[in-house]
Write a structure and sequence with these properties.
The structure holds 2 protein chains of 2 kinds. Chain A is an alpha/beta fold. Chain A has 18 helices and 12 strands. In chain A, the strands form 3 sheets. Chain A has a 5-stranded mixed sheet, with helices on both faces. In chain A, strands 7-6-12-9-10 form a 5-stranded mixed sheet. In chain A, strands 8-11 form a two-stranded antiparallel sheet. In chain A, a hairpin with a 4-residue loop joins strand 3 (156-159) and strand 4 (164-172). The longest helix of chain A has 18 residues, at 357-374. Chain A is globular and about 70 Å long. The relative contact order of chain A is 0.12. Chain B contains 13 helices and 26 strands. Chain B has helices at 24-30, 82-97, 113-121, 156-164, 196-200, 263-267, 294-305, 320-332, 365-370, 401-404, 463-473, 483-493, 502-505, and strands at residues 6-11, 14-19, 54-57, 64-65, 76-78, 138-139, 144-146, 170-173, 180-183, 206-208, 221-226, 235-241, 244-250, 282-285, 288-291, 310-314, 336-339, 347-348, 356-357, 374-375, 388-392, 409-414, 424-429, 438-441, 446-450, 510-511. In chain B, strand 18 and strand 19 form a beta hairpin. In chain B, helix 2 (82-97) packs across helix 3 (113-121). Classes of the chains: A alpha/beta, B alpha+beta. The interface between A and B is medium-sized, with 34 and 35 residues.
């Protein structure tokens, strides 16, 4: 397993501070680095006060949607007589995203600590960490860390000796992308087929096992101990563009770039500096052509858009895309956009849960059309059809998987139309590449 | 919940007031607006997966799935807004890209919701340029054939087996457009109620093997009826083609059978088409029975009955009206009567309260007992030496043969000539349930009406008609020429039926006086 790079001078390593430090994986090592102080402090506070600190910090969900975490926690009404659950979404499957994996590999106790604080704040005595089936190393590390935390009395029936019960269970998924959708995750956790559920009821009313449930991303929860330790004001201060986006964000960078990897920057960091300075720019002799900034589900950015972006929730939206999960996929000028968009669509067609008509049929149909265009058998009408199908696949289904399939297609056709037309008029791929069979 | 709060809203310009919690789809039904849908079924849980029922609701940014969206005070719903029509047109196109356009050879054609809504709201032509997906058809066991390519994955069948039959045999296998309805390993649709998935299927994916290639849907005549095959009294539709019953399907009645009919009941209709029927009244001339007219036959029967005690062996498959007329014939000379009913294991449908294929496999056991016929495995035991035996469409078994010898004469009223009866002096042809109007009383005392679905063969008449005429020949006031008349006379004389008429029964039925609880009526 690879070790992370040494932090760049402009990075702000908070979550990633101990990436590459195997000693941080143990309870003792984590405590030496200031760990579990936040949990101890939190267990002495009232749950409402913790929720207020998180609200005050401006922390927002790092899984993709960016919902304010403190507000989400406040939906869990204490004293309703029902068992509450916290689910940790560690089913990191978004193509191009590999930040949660690193958090779990190197700082499993950061996640356990954040999850324990969250559990206590929401009156949950049970917390499930739902780990992606393919994450073998993170699973091993998390299991060892949870076992050690139980042995040390940090979690369990008498967490930190306070008499409060916080159970943490690690659950391994079976490898379905859709199980990263929160209600599909709950179904999967219950042993059912991983199909997203219709809402209402929302998870905070009836979630896993029909009980009030909150689902948080790994990165979100891992940030909570730092907020408790250093204060909401400190976290809120890490905001350089829009005050609604605070703290640090891990970005996973892959594709045609000199130094791929995980980078942690403060909200509002200029994307241009990030790409050309921090990540080393394009590989020798190449130029960047397009960026997918937030995992494969967000619209593709042109370089003009990307270079003008300030990296926060609002900044990416202002430049035609979304922050998403922070999975930055970089394409250089040797890449065929049609091929890559077809590959994205194929992924969604494969992963559609098959409930909603538009998604089940639409993702597969779009894939067939895109692959046909890539092979040189497309027509100009196909582009209109794709745009029309994409519109009908957006905002009309139970979850957003079909929206996610449509986003790169629509943005791809609008922003790189000449490449599609070159395939159609030239009856072959001008880049000489062919779509993966 | 009788005291549920009412919510007022506007659907397609019509004012609607429904209890809080009602879906837009159900609310629309109450004002005659059918919002197209596939996955939604009132008897099953809501999954909202077909996305067909999307409608525009003012002040909501996205289209709302009508099946899943509860009504709200002051809501304004536009079912036919451009945006909603476009979305539904798209769903239809998506459903059709992999659906074979084989309507000309599909049994469902003519009663297919995919076909109906495509004609109503679909595109004139699809835009698919690529090959369609193909999957082989599969035998699902029982009466069910799965034609995979036609499936639209609405999962009604899966939910029926899970929630109503509570026998998890089906699932959705695979993902994406590779998904199909699958059977769990080693499982078949052998549940006694499994064939309901055929009715629930909105398209031609789940077909009845029994009905396969028998008829086009538009060639069928449909008649409201009641299943005669057990005491439950499930409401049915009898479907006939060219005067032949070719299919029996459930008719919804939330007080009895909800939307369902058991496999045994639905497949047991062939006897209604029997051709070895008594078609003319017969009277004995020497050693043979000769055809004659009704007057002579009735006069002959009355002659034998006059001054004698009658013992009536009455089939529990006969209508209330017929059994009541027979009971009057029985009582005319101070006689008695009985019947035997076939018993088989009971098979409940767990998801519906008080619904089962009942152990007693005849429709009208309740009325037969009510009118004084004794239920017994040896019904002729109560017969006295010299009685005139009337066999009213009841089978005569070998065990009954010794008792036959005690009869001074045997009169047959029936659809067929019973075996083992060789000495009948008169035989009066009668109609079966498909050939007459009438009512049955189910085991919970619910009186339900059925209608004539096919022409009666030859000169045959309902028993209430021929029996009534016989009473006239015996000097009683009778004589009924339409079923409602016979029923009105019954209702006037039997206190349990007081106040009932065909109008008041309608097609959902009414409970006998003092019968508060109707079968299946406890809750939905």
């Amino acid at each position: 397993m690879g070790f992370p790079h040494a932090p760049h001078a402009k990075e702000t390593p908070v979550l990633s501070q101990y990436f590459g430090d195997p000693a941080a994986r143990t309870v003792a090592g984590w405590k030496q680095r200031g760990g579990y102080a936040a949990l101890e402090q939190a267990l002495g506070m009232s749950p409402a006060d913790i929720v207020n600190v998180v609200k005050e910090s401006g922390l927002r969900g790092r899984g993709g949607a960016g919902f304010p975490t403190g507000m989400k926690w406040s939906f869990m009404k204490p004293g309703d007589g029902k068992p509450h659950y916290l689910c940790v979404n560690a089913d990191e499957s978004e193509p191009g995203t590999f930040k949660d994996r690193e958090i779990m590999r190197w700082t499993p106790h950061a996640l356990i600590e954040g999850a324990a604080i969250g559990s206590y704040a929401m009156g949950a005595e049970t917390c499930y960490i739902y780990i992606r089936g393919e994450f073998t190393e993170p699973l091993t590390v998390m299991n060892a860390a949870v076992n050690e935390a139980y042995a040390a009395g940090i979690v369990g029936p008498n967490a930190m000796g306070t008499g409060k019960r916080i159970d943490v269970h690690v659950h391994k998924g079976a490898g379905a992308y859709i199980c990263g959708e929160e209600t599909a995750l709950m179904n999967s956790l219950e042993g059912k087929r991983g199909n997203p559920r219709i809402k209402p009821p929302f998870p905070a009313v009836a979630g896993v096992f029909g009980m009030p449930t909150t689902i948080n991303n790994v990165e979100t929860l891992a940030a909570v101990p730092h907020i408790m330790n250093r204060g909401a004001a400190w976290y809120k201060g890490m905001s350089h563009s829009n005050p609604k986006s605070t703290g640090t964000k891990l970005f996973s960078v892959c594709g045609n770039i000199a130094k791929p990897g995980n980078y942690e920057v403060e909200m509002g960091f200029p994307f241009k500096d990030f790409l050309y300075d921090m990540c080393g720019g394009p590989t020798p002799g190449r130029r960047f052509k397009a960026i997918v900034p937030g995992g494969s589900s967000v619209p593709i950015q042109t370089m003009e858009e990307a270079e003008a972006t300030l990296m926060d929730y609002e900044g990416f939206v202002a430049q035609g895309s979304m922050l998403g999960s922070g999975g930055v996929i970089v394409f250089d000028d040797a890449q065929c956009m049609v091929k890559h968009i077809a590959r994205f669509a194929r992924f969604y067609a494969h992963e559609s849960c098959a409930q909603c008509t538009q998604c089940r049929e639409g993702t597969a149909w779009c894939t067939r059309i895109l692959e046909r265009i890539e092979r040189g058998h497309g027509t100009m009408e196909d582009l209109d059809t794709l745009l029309d199908l994409s519109e009908q696949m957006t905002a009309k289904t139970i979850c957003v998987l079909s929206d996610s399939c449509a986003a790169p297609i629509v943005s791809g056709i609008h922003k790189f139309r000449s490449e599609f037309e070159a395939h159609i008029t030239g009856k072959r791929c001008p880049m000489g590449a062919t779509a993966a069979a | 919940m009788a005291d549920a709060q009412q919510v007022s809203l506007t659907i397609e310009g019509r004012q609607v007031s429904v209890p809080a919690g009602t879906s837009i789809l159900e609310a629309a039904k109450t004002v005659g607006v059918l919002i197209p849908h596939y996955c939604y079924h009132p008897g099953l849980s809501i999954v909202g997966n077909c996305r067909m029922c999307q409608v525009e609701v003012e002040k909501m940014p996205k289209l709302a799935p009508a099946c899943q969206t509860a009504v709200a005070e002051g809501q304004v719903v536009h079912v036919y807004a451009d945006r909603a029509l476009k979305a539904r047109e798209a769903v239809l196109e998506f459903l059709l890209i992999n659906h074979p356009l084989d309507c000309p050879i599909c049994d469902k054609s003519g009663e297919c919701e995919l076909q109906d809504y495509t004609y109503r709201e679909g595109r004139a032509a699809g835009r698919l340029q690529d090959p369609k997906r193909f999957n082989p058809a599969e035998d699902f066991g029982g009466d069910v054939q799965y034609v995979t390519n036609r499936c639209i994955l609405c999962t009604r069948c899966v939910r029926f087996m899970d929630e109503v039959a509570q026998d998890t045999a089906l699932n959705v296998s695979e993902r994406g457009d590779r998904a199909v309805i699958g059977k769990f390993e080693g499982r078949d649709l052998t549940h006694p109620w499994a064939a309901n998935v055929i009715d629930l299927c909105p398209v031609g994916a789940l077909l009845s093997k029994d009905f396969l290639n028998k008829s086009r849907a538009w060639e069928l005549d449909r008649t409201p009826s009641v299943c005669p095959n057990c005491t439950q009294g499930c409401n049915t539709i009898l479907e006939t083609r060219d005067n032949m019953v070719v299919r029996m399907r459930p008719r919804s009645n939330l007080d009895v059978n909800h939307y369902y009919l058991c496999d045994e009941g639905r497949l047991d209709y062939r006897w209604m088409n029997r051709t070895d029927r008594l078609e003319a009244p017969l009277v004995r001339r020497g050693d043979r029975l000769a055809a004659t007219d009704w007057d002579e036959a009735l006069r002959a029967a009355a002659l034998h009955l006059n001054g004698k005690r009658a013992f009536v062996l009455a089939s529990p498959m006969l209508s209330n009206e017929s059994l009541w007329v027979l009971s009057r014939i029985m009582k005319h000379g101070g006689g008695a009567g009985g019947f035997r009913v076939r018993r088989e294991p009971e098979a409940p449908l767990p998801g519906v309260p008080d619904l089962a294929r009942r152990a007693e496999r005849a429709a009208n056991v309740r009325a037969a007992e009510l009118f004084g016929f004794a239920k017994s495995d040896t019904p002729l035991a109560g017969m006295q030496e010299g009685d005139v035996l009337i066999v009213a469409d009841h089978e005569v078994a070998a065990a009954d043969a010794p008792a036959l010898a005690k009869a001074s004469a045997v009169i047959v009223i029936g659809t067929t000539m019973p075996e083992l009866v060789s000495n009948a002096i008169v035989a009066l042809p009668s109609t079966n349930v498909a050939e007459e109007d009438g009512t049955f009383t189910n085991l919970r005392g619910r009186v339900q009406q059925y209608r004539q679905a096919r022409a009666a063969p030859g000169m045959s008449r309902p028993v209430w008609w021929s029996g009534g005429d016989l009473l006239v020949f015996l000097g009683e006031r009778a004589g009924y020429y339409i079923a409602s008349e016979a029923f009105a006379a019954l209702a006037a004389q039997q206190p349990e039926f007081a106040g009932m008429s065909y109008e008041s029964l309608g097609f959902k039925g009414q409970a006998l006086a003092g019968q508060a609880v109707a079968a299946g009526g406890a809750a939905r």
